[in-house]
Amino acid sequence: MQQKLITFAVPCYNSAAYMRHCIETLLSAGEQAEIILVDDGSVKDDTPAICDEYAAKYPTIVKAIHQENGGHGEGVNQGIRNATGLYYKVVDSDDWLDTDALQKVLARLHTLVTRGTAPSHTVRYTNIFPQERLFTWMHVGHFRPDQNLLMHSVMYRTEVLRKCGMVLPKHTFYVDNIFVYQPLPFVKTMYYMDLDLYRYFIGRADQSVNESIMVKRVDQQLRVTKHMIDCQDLDALKDEKKLRAYMLHYLSMMMAVSDIFLLLDGSAEAKEKQKGLWQYLREHTSAAVYRSIRFGFGGVTNLPFPKGDAIVVGGYRIARKIFKFN
C-alpha cells in the first residue's frame, strides 16, 4: 500500500460539539491523508462514538484510538506512535483547516516528495523565511520579540519527530511549545508557504490561553519550561549560530512567560517558584546559556529592584493590547 503523504492527529476530549467540522475539513485531503482521532478518555459526551463513526465510514483514511485520559500531549504522542504519513500535523478538535489552502500545501508536499527532498490575528513569517523554496537556517532572517514558531504553523516529517526522541508530558497544557522546540536541531531543510491554512476557534471561557486559566495552571507552564531547558544542549549548536540564537530566543520567551504568570499570581509561594525556576536554569545549563537568557529578553521580566514586579506587569498589560495575545 502506498505511504500516506500526511498524518493529521486530532486529540479529542469531550469534543462532540465541534469536532465534526474539524474532521470534515481534513477529509478534503482525500486518500493522501491519514486522520488519527485520539479519544483522550472522553466521558461526558459522544466523542468516542463520533471517532468510531468516522473510522467506520472512512476506513482507509480515519483511525480511531481510545486511550485513558493523558492530556493533550499524550494525544500528540499517541498520534506520533501510530502515524504512517510522511509528514505529521496536529489539528486541535475545536480548530480546522482552510480547505483551499490545504490543497495548495498538499500539492507542494507532493512536489517535494517527488524531488526526493525533505523539506482574527494572522501569524506570518515573510520577514524571516524565504518563500517557495527549500532553505536551511543559514537563510533565515531575524525573529522579532513577538514572533515564534507555533505548533499549528508547522508540519514536521514524522521521521524527525521520532528521531528527536520527543515525548510530551501527560496531563499538561502548553506542550505545543515543546512540540515546536525540541525537534528543531534535527531539521535540515525547510520550506515556507505564506498561506492562511490553520483556523483557531477563539472565545471559550475555558481555553487554556486565557489569562486567568494560565495563572491557575502556572505549574504546568513551569513543567513545560523545565522540559525545554533539559531537552536540548544549546552549546552543542555553536556551529548553527542562527538555530542556536532562535532556540535561545524561544527559551528566553518561555522564561519570561513563566515569570509573568507567577507575578500575576502574586503570592509568596509564586515568588519562591520564580526564584526556583531561575535556579533550575542556572543548574541545568552552561554559564553562557544562563547569561544569554538572564541578561537578555528572558531577564526583562525579573527585575531585581523595588517596584520591578509592578513595572513588568504593567509592561505585559501594554504588550497584550498591542500584540493581542491571550
Description:
There is one protein chain. The chain has 326 residues and is α/β, with parallel strands linked by helices. The protein has helices at 19-27, 47-57, 71-82, 99-115, 158-163, 176-181, 211-216, 218-231, 241-265, 268-284, 287-294, 308-323, and strands spanning 6-12, 33-40, 62-67, 87-90, 96-97, 134-135, 156-157, 190-191, 198-199. A 5-stranded mixed sheet has the order 3-2-1-4-7, with helices on both faces. Strand 1, helix 1 and strand 2 form a beta-alpha-beta unit. Helix 9 (241-265) packs antiparallel against helix 10. It is globular. The model has no long low-confidence stretch (mean pLDDT 89).
Give a quick summary of the entry.
With 326 residues, this protein is α/β, with parallel strands linked by helices. 45% of the residues lie in helices and 11% in strands.
Question: What is the secondary structure topology, with strand pairs?
Answer:
Blueprint: E1 6-12, H1 19-27, E2 33-40, H2 47-57, E3 62-67, H3 71-82, E4 87-90, E5 96-97, H4 99-115, E6 134-135, E7 156-157, H5 158-163, H6 176-181, E8 190-191, E9 198-199, H7 211-216, H8 218-231, H9 241-265, H10 268-284, H11 287-294, H12 308-323
Parallel strand pairs: 1-2, 1-4, 2-3
Antiparallel strand pairs: 4-7, 5-9, 6-8
Shape: globular
Order of strands in the sheet with most strands? 3-2-1-4-7
Rg from alpha-carbon coordinates: 20 Å
Report the sheet-strand fraction.
Answer: 5-15%
- Give the averaged pLDDT, no decimals: 89
Main features:
326 residues, alpha/beta, five-stranded mixed sheet, two-stranded antiparallel sheet, 9 strands, globular
